[in-house]
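Pipeline run #58 for the internal structure catalog. This entry was flagged by the ingest filter as a single-chain record with no existing model, so it goes straight to prediction. Upstream metadata was stripped on purpose; only the residue string is passed forward. Reviewer on rotation: M.T. Logging verbosity set to normal.
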Amino acid sequence: MPEAVLLNNVDHHDLRVIQARGARYGDDQMLAPTFFGEFRELQAHYPIVFQKTADGGFRSLALLGLRRDENLFLERDEAGGERWDARYLPMSIERLPFLIGIADEEPMIHIDLAHPRVVRGGGEGEALFLEHGGNTAFLQRVVSLLRALHEGLRDEAGFIEALRRCDLLEPFSLDLSLDEHTQHRVSGFHCIDEDKLRDLGAADLHALKQAGHLEAIYMAIASLSRLRDVIERLSRRHAAGR
């Protein structure tokens, strides 16, 4: 059960945050929420897809796996632990166990005290506060990360609305044959409809470009080339009996 509280240097002066990667730290996620401003970094490593939300809208996601609660970018290391096998970590993953919460009607940094990355005292993990006051470089990095994530997710609604207005989202599915006895289907996601993008008129294209959305659209399209890598990762894991 999450236990999110407003971060402060009095109650939390001795908190540390473990930076190692692994399923035991909650990294075994198939999907990482993202926003169009992050697509340039993501597209070199992960497929970017779109998923319908409960309110009838859509959200942007980095696809980390092809089966529920499985992250194919978590690999075993030589010491028997786990490591993240990509040079870029999605912001929504990197920011944990921190989050933006509202305090006195203002967005403020909160921390989930129940998160497995959070420890008190000792030498494990990154300290949040300096011994004689002030934020550590690690916490300053977290502040910048949360600000970028908060602002990006705030602006994401306009991007999604532009995609829907131009009817650029189409459903897709993957049917995989892992071996002669094992079939796997991936569904429930949308991608950019390239045919409709090519057919857009000058006015729509200009509006997308002016809003900074056109580049993100092409980044999302380019990211689907990473599906081959994700499928290969799943095939290797299946062949190894995992």
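catalog note: Residues 12-94+116-234 form one domain.
catalog note: Helices lie at 39-42, 91-94, 137-165, 194-198, 202-210, 213-223, 227-239.
status: ready for reviewer M.T.
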